[in-house]
Amino acid sequence: MRNATIRILLTAVLAAAGILGALAADPPALQYPKTATVDQTDDYHGTKVADPYRWLEDDKAPAVAAWVQEQNALTFGYLGQIPYRDAIRRRLETLMNYPRYSAPFRAGDYYFFSKNDGLQNQSVTYYQKGLTGEPRVFLDPNTLSKDGTTRAGLAGFSEDDRYVVVRYSAAGSDWGELKVMGVASRRELSDHLKWVKFSGAAWRGNGFYYSRYDAPKPGEELTARNENQKIYFHKLGDPQAKDRLVFEDPEHPLRYHGAGVTEDGRYLIISSSEGTHGNEVRVRDLKRKGSQFQVLCPGFQYNYSIIDNVGERFLVHTDHGAPNYRVVLVDPRRPGPENWQTVVAEKKDVLRGASTAGGKLFCTYLVDVSTRVYQHALDGRLEKEIELPGLGSAGGFYGKRKDTTLFYTFTNFTYPPVIFKYDLKTGRSELFRRTELPFDSTGFEAKQVFYPSKDGTKIPMFIVHKKGLALSGDNPTYLYAYGGFNASMTPSFSATMMLWLESGGVYAMANLRGGGEYGEAWHQAGMREKKQNVFDDFIAAAEYLIREKYTSSKRLAIAGGSNGGLLVGACMTQRPELYQVALPAVGVMDMLRFHKFTVGWGWTVEYGTSDDPAQFKYLQAYSPLHNLKPGVRYPATLVTTADHDDRVVPAHSFKFIAALQACQAGPDPVLIRVETRSGHGASSLTKGLDLQADAWAFTFWNMGVKPKIGE
């Protein structure tokens, strides 16, 4: 370790002297902590696969804790020698120091919204009487923990709007606890529900429905597989032990179950899914004594979302018979698809969502990854298009049946979020709240290009940079993507990205197959046995940026988180020479064992499972952990994860970096940064800024580029 420190200091001295370039081709290698191996081999359908770092899966073991401490010491020692790291952190703090609001929504006599003054670790929930009342703090999560890592948000209002369920989570974990507050009094009641995950609160009368798991064994809270999710009814004032079991499916323990109640309180809706794609919907008429659940939409091939009920029938947003989605009216007395009434037919553009408010139906489409919103009557008649400020992303258009005013937010890469008020009677939008930035974002521009992937498919990509950028082939470029789970990566504003852009950097966001940008066909073209399409799309994006002279391999960084971390891991193992820097965050790196931890089983719908012989073959073919090869020069890599990530457990990143350090033949550093009291995403603004500063510093340093802080 002493020799490594000397080498790091020598590098810093050479950089300060301006002679680093002469040695950049072959700087001294880091001395990585020695990672023990174990004799572990698994038999997958006749194929023997070694897993020498299996012991790193036990993140509670003292040996693993010691290993993490050694790795972090090396990583933070390396980052600490970067001369502009602190300046980057200070600039990020300046860039983020501006008020950020959510759109308001009404609950009874009050309007609620969230606000962050600028540098608060968590946004604060405010409420006010009417739109002209004085805003008052309703819930401030920043008071709940010393380090600001406890989150709290509103999970559901009672039918009379007198009470609201508040969901709390600690240190970034997916586990939550539910408590109840009086709206007018702001006082917390005695109700306290534990072991809640992926659940809201659906009120009916004197209580609410919610989803929970049985308590895990002590010490296994963040790693044990979550099974047998159940739905309970909690009566206000009762202890959790008295909650009434409403729905369970013990024959299928690996399913999610969520509950909702229609606005009129008549129907209980249960949506069940086997993963992240496809679901089944049941309904129960709560006003009919002795009524039972009825399957309204059978699973699990298609996606169904209940928008609202119109009397005894249901408006449903679905891709059944419509890969780009449509809205249909379903009668529970004749629920078969042959009896559905089409309300809004499928179009060539994907219908990403539909909602009702004020007796109207709002349909949100994506047209080449930009939002369009249309207002319809409940019978489907088109009434008007909502005029938006330009190309970008809009969200909102939610409300109750008697509402006459709605709110929505619009943003894009260079346009910070702006909130508009929409009058349902006049059909007019007016500015409600504009974001005031501490910097000028008008000097940047965004464009959309379409490039061919390996099989010729045209892939859209957004490119953002300073106006007047010269295509010199040498611009530092940050390529980001996700490519999975039907998620659509739409234009959005990022203050922390401004630091990259003001330093002459290029930001590129590719809309890969596997996402939802062009409907279910686009999604399925990147699922399971077709997952390689996603990696091909990303690699083709990198090649396009180089071919079109935006950058070169020596100035190209690739980044992604979660499924995007898998993307980065797969692409850096398949084409290591194409990138200078790789930033895989909280990635799914072990594709043979991901389904054995927490809710990983829910991703088998998207990825497949190694338990299946055919699926094992293609998973092994691209699994980042299993495709690292000794003697290969991999890009400078900073793997990031956190100790409370109970979605993609840290073991993925631990095993990947251990193998990468053993395989790395080149001089570029391959490091891991393990955050504490954080989860699948930064648990506080402070931790988020620390992480982003380190990522930017690592990227600039390994590209040999000095950032232009504040220029």
What does the model show?
The protein has 711 residues and is an alpha+beta fold. Among the domains are: 1-31; 39-94 and 439-703, 3-Layer(aba) Sandwich (Rossmann fold), CATH 3.40.50; 347-436. The chain is built from twelve helices and 39 strands. An eight-stranded mixed beta sheet has the order 32-33-35-34-36-37-38-39, with helices on both faces. Strands 3, 4, 5, 6 and 7 form a five-stranded antiparallel beta sheet that branches. A four-stranded antiparallel beta sheet has the order 8-9-10-11, with no helix packed on it. α4 packs across α12. The two termini are 38 Å apart.
Radius of gyration: 26 Å
Shape category? globular
Kindly, what is the distance between the CA atoms of the first and last residues, rounded to a whole number of angstroms? 38 Å
Mean pLDDT across residues: 94
Q: Which spans of ≥5 residues are poorly predicted at pLDDT below 50?
A: 1-27
Indicate the structural class. alpha+beta
| Number of distinct helices | 12
Outline the biggest β-sheet.
8 strands, mixed
- Assign the CATH superfamily of the domain at 39-94 and 439-703: Alpha/Beta hydrolase fold, catalytic domain
Strand line-up of the largest beta sheet:
32-33-35-34-36-37-38-39
CATH class descriptor name of the domain at 39-94 and 439-703: Alpha Beta
Q: Can you give the helix content as a percent range?
A: 10-25%
Approximate strand percentage: 25-35%
- Total DSSP E strands: 39
CATH topology of the domain at 39-94 and 439-703: Rossmann fold
Architecture of the domain at 39-94 and 439-703, according to CATH?
3-Layer(aba) Sandwich
